[in-house]
Amino acid sequence: MADTTGLTDLTGSGLVEQVRALAAGDVTSRALVERSLARIAETQPLLNAFRRVRAGAALAEADAADRRLAAGEAGERLPLLGVPVAVKDDVDVAGEPTAFGCAGDFPPKSADSEAVRRLRAAGAIVVGKTNTPELGQWPVTEGPAFGVTRNPWSTEHTPGGSSGGAAAAVAAGLVPAALGSDGAGSIRIPAAWTHLVGIKPQRGRVSTWPEPEAFRGITCHGPLARTVADAALLLQAASGSHDGDLHRPPPVDALAAAGRDPGRLRIALSLRPAFAAARQRLDPEAAAATVRIAERLASLGHEVIEEEPRYGLIGLTFVPRSMSGVREWAGRVPDPALLDARTKVNARGGLILGGGVLRVARAAEEPLRRRVGEIFDRFDVILTPTTAVPPLRNGELSDLSSSRTDATMIAACPYSWPWNVLGWPGMSVPAGFTEQGRLPLGAQLLGPAHSEPRLISLAAQLEAEERWFEQWPELTHAGETTTACA
Questions:
Q1: What positions does the domain Amidase occupy (predicted)?
Q2: Nearest one of 187, 173, 210, 176 to 416, comparing CA atoms
Q3: What is the set of active-site residues?
Q4: Which of 214, 258, 268, 389 could connect to 379 by a Cys-Cys bridge, CB 3.0–4.6 Å?
């Protein structure tokens, strides 16, 4: 059995560090999984990051991983052998229900989703499934089915949504990385609000099977992690297509990109969001954080110029696809009466906006790609705020009507959803903190089709200067957090 004395040094370590330590025999998978499960149990009453925890199964899988590590099986074929990770509760894990934030008695799944299958084939140990709001509809993670998931940086605030449980788990060091999903910013928003790196990859980069596509093609799976290299490693392991996928992009090497210089790039700084039928105002601190990142990129030799994409009426194509996806998922729940009233409104909207309206919305995607993509004739990357405001307070969307909820979340998070319509890659990186309350803020890097390597290389270069991974939220006692530096 390997010496586990190095576990203290690996407390809160990242995915890459844990892979190296396991391969070197400095720690066992069982020790890492035990530590992850202990931290989950310790923080669950406060953070409430997990919907399901696979304690017994994860420990048995860790023991099996240790046997494979002892036999020398770690390496390129098993790049995550023995490492604990979490997945959002919108993907299937064999033997566990997939409730997707809903109340009710969901049956256990008989097989892993393709993304989970790939992670496990790479050797990862799935310790549990993380909380998400009902059908991933809101940029907060709370609901009657599981309560409130809290932000490790300030437990009075949300970690964001809809991958808020995954973000809280990574930000608090419960797991080194987690798989989330992004249908309107649901990876990038919680990444921004919990000081993480979050990647929404090209549509189809990570399979959505057993769904041929998710939410009419607007939702993608992707990683949340504390470093660019960790996010790239998880993305690389999860990537790949199933024969039944509708979208099957050519492969890219995300991991190699994390170690490669991006070269000198032309970057468009954009502070104006796409038009939406809600009042929008960019918080001065969120704007200043993005401008500071722009200045940092300029100091690294990139040419940064203020320029706005030509979004047009892209929002009109998003709503039919989103509501149609909600309607489809709402039809699967065991007890529809338990659904949030706002979910029922959105599901009815999916009926009204289905059929011909949905077909028109989907047909508009290619013209929109040409219109918005014109900016990439002159620029390599677009830089925007990830969100318009710092993290919302817990309960800020509770008890609102459907229209008030939509207006509030559009105003808070107007920068991410257009890239879900286009299907192109985007990622959020930490951009600093507010002066009062030390709440995390994020900046968003956006690219054209298949541009994950460029975005990852640029983010890694920025990370080497910013060193955001050195800052941690230190949980003290209920209701309080302090900021710690590694």
A1: 32-455
A2: 187
A3: 88, 162, 186
A4: 268
For the entire predicted model, the pTM comes to 0.96
pLDDT digit string (tens) for the chain, length 486 residues: 344 445 656 767 899 999 999 999 999 999 999 999 999 999 999 999 999 999 999 999 999 999 999 999 988 889 999 999 999 999 999 999 999 999 999 999 999 999 999 999 999 999 999 999 999 999 999 999 999 999 999 999 999 999 999 999 999 999 999 999 999 999 999 999 999 999 999 999 999 999 999 999 999 999 999 999 999 999 999 999 999 999 999 999 999 999 999 999 999 999 999 988 777 899 999 999 999 999 999 999 999 999 999 999 999 999 999 999 999 999 999 999 999 999 999 999 999 999 999 999 999 999 999 999 999 999 999 999 999 999 999 999 999 999 999 999 999 999 999 999 999 999 999 999 999 989 999 999 999 999 999 999 999 999 999 999 999 998 733 334 444 443
**Residue whose entry in the numeric block shows the structure tokens 């203020």:** 306
User: Residue 329 and residue 216: Cα distance in Å, rounded?
Assistant: 11
Classify burial at 185, counting beta carbons within 10 Å of its beta carbon; exposed 0-12, middle 13-18, buried 19 or more. Answer: buried
* CA gap 155, 195 in Å, rounded: 14
Q: Which distant-in-sequence residues (6+ apart) come within 8 Å of 73 by Cβ?
A: 81
Using the Cα atoms of residue 451, residue 457, residue 463 and residue 469 in order, give the sign of their dihedral.
positive
